[in-house]
Specification:
By secondary structure, this protein is mostly helical. The protein has a domain at 34-72. The protein has two helices and no strands. The protein is elongated and about 85 Å long.
């Protein structure tokens, strides 16, 4: 009688941890970008406006309503 080999399960790949030192610059970069976007969507109009006119307001108008910021 022939022997039947039992199926083997593959070993799980080793997960190498990523250090906080490697993630920190990217986290700061994306945090700054998120704050800039939040400013333009939420506050770039009226007294806090950095740019004159309605150009920025019109570009972010739909995003402003989608996120619940009032604008008119």
């Amino acid at each position: 009688m022939a022997h039947i080999a039992a199926p083997t399960t593959p070993a799980a790949p080793a997960v190498t941890p990523i250090s906080l030192k490697a993630i920190a610059p990217w986290a700061v970069f994306f945090g700054v970008v998120a704050l800039i976007l939040l400013y333009f969507v939420g506050a770039e109009q009226g007294a806090t406006s950095l740019f004159a006119g309605e150009g920025v307001h019109e570009w972010v108008h739909d995003g402003r309503h989608l996120l619940g910021f009032p604008c008119h």
